[in-house]
Amino acid sequence: NGNHPFTSVVKMIPTAAPWAQTANQQNLQAKQNHQHHHVSTGHPSKGSKDSVLTTNGKHAPPPSSSTPQADQQQQQQEQQQQEQQLAESSQPGGGRRYEPAHKALANASDLQLFLQSETCRDYIAFVLALNQAVTGRKLSDLGQNPSPAVLRMVATLDVLASWVDEIPPEQQSLRYGNPAFRTWFARLTEQASSLLESMLLPQHHPAIVELTGYFVDSFGNATRIDYGTGHETTFCAFLYCLSRLGVFSEADYGCVVSLVFNKYLNLMRRIQTTYWLEPAGSHGVWGLDDYNFLPFIWGSAQLINHPLIRPKSIHNPDILEEFADEYLYLGCITFVKQVKKGPLQETSPMLCDISHVPHWAKVNSGMIKMYQAEVLSKFPIMQHFLFGSIIPFQRPSTPASAAAQQ
């Protein structure tokens, strides 16, 4: 109707803002790079699973190969060598002094400095790079041939999921805020360093002192027994740190979303429905979702140019049942319907409003802008964001502060 919060948020984004303008340019550049990559590398055509598209537009038969077992062993060796080279090139111990991650945004002025900083632009560029990596692809296709680093991250999240089985919720009259979550979180805090040691190569172990804060804060707050988009953003920042350290490369981005983030998303849904964490910073029925935002961004990117599924398809139960496990966006809708009683137009009117947008590309661009406005630009959320040597934040020095330092 043009007056809904989703429409107004998208319209109110200042396109001249440095972070918004840079994000738009990076998104355009990512699309251009993706188009060039699509032609030069020769992705399989729609008409054949085996043929590839060459630079002259013709289909060629797949290259001959040796036995599948030999190919798989060679691929695993190449992935391990690539990971080793990334670890050595990142030089985690050379020139960088790691420090425990800490909060640095003390007021709204600090937040504005962050939004205009290179650090913020780089983080948004990472979100957009993951967005581009999953565009037009379902999760099962994205999860092919994961690197050893990705598999270790998935295994770590499996360990955290097993703790939910070992720590059942306590009996209480209240629905939300089960204190058993504090027991689960205490074990996470106690074993975080050892979990990261098993996840990372020895070359990256010096960074654990800094990564631990991001890792622990990604799973909610034990004092308030809550979870929200700020904790989800912290997990994305954790992935961004790993990327900057060279733990995984851009070639892994599809698997990072389809395997690592999707595993994290399902783990948090299980924690939410087991210990019933309070939504942190939720806007209620007028918000996008009580807990998450990023799967709506990357999930809408997955559905761009889909031949059958449209934004309005979220109201089709058959579509949700068949495709919820393949597309993050549809999985989010399914979860909302499971945990909230009543029609979707009553429990989540914003999602219904978005379903009237004609194309997924427009939904995706709107989600990106909304994430910047409703998450990254909100001080109550970002005051808990962590900084360190990997994700730095520095206030500009003034003559008074320089004199005080002298």
Structure in a nutshell:
The protein is mainly alpha-helical and 406 residues long. It has helices spanning 5-12, 18-41, 68-90, 108-115, 118-134, 139-142, 148-166, 180-199, 208-217, 229-245, 253-275, 294-302, 317-323, 328-339, 344-347, 349-354, 360-376, 379-382, 399-405; strands at 52-53, 59-60, 102-103, 226-228, 278-280, 386-387. Strands 1-2 form a two-stranded antiparallel ribbon. A two-stranded antiparallel sheet has the order 3-6. A two-stranded parallel ribbon has the order 4-5.
Set out the fold topology:
Elements: H1 5-12, H2 18-41, E1 52-53, E2 59-60, H3 68-90, E3 102-103, H4 108-115, H5 118-134, H6 139-142, H7 148-166, H8 180-199, H9 208-217, E4 226-228, H10 229-245, H11 253-275, E5 278-280, H12 294-302, H13 317-323, H14 328-339, H15 344-347, H16 349-354, H17 360-376, H18 379-382, E6 386-387, H19 399-405
Helix pairs in contact: 1-17, 2-5, 5-11, 5-12, 7-8, 7-11, 8-9, 9-10, 12-14, 12-17, 13-14
